[in-house]
Amino acid sequence: MDYTTWIPGLHSMRNAVLDAVTDEDLAFSPGRDALTWAALLGQAIATQRDYLRSFTRGVMVWSEPIPPASLAMARRLFDAQDDELVAILTSSHFDPKAPIDRPDLTRTANEQIEAYVQFMLMFLAQATVYLRAQGRPVPPSVAANIG
User: Fold this and answer.
1) What residue segments make up the domains of the chain, in order of their start?
2) In this model, does residue 2 exceed pLDDT 80?
3) In 17-56, which positions are buried (b, 16+ CB within 10 angstroms) versus exposed (e)?
């Protein structure tokens, strides 16, 4: 299956989630030891960056997340990374069978794309929990595809 076709829709749903959150919400946590919105977004930004770097470096290295100071900052980082990821995956030099070494195993670039899609689905599922815990409506595209 070609998971690259899923990526623009996943990014669009993530952006719809960002539209449903305010800067004041960044300190919100659904409780106990759950991450704040800012920490969750910082984790998502770092993870996306780690995946896109893996496609150019051939190795997956996990970086420390840095929570964004604002939603505008998060959106700028996501937008830049979205553009870079699409450029990499649509480049004539991209080899879907190229090996990517992860700490636990080696995957092909295609398998790494599938893992990225799974990460995005998990992020969107977490975001729906946060929105519902705040009593906020889940964006229609997210509700229809994630729940």
Assistant:
1) 3-145
2) no
3) bbebbeeebbebebeeeebbbbbbbbbbbbbbbbbbbbbe
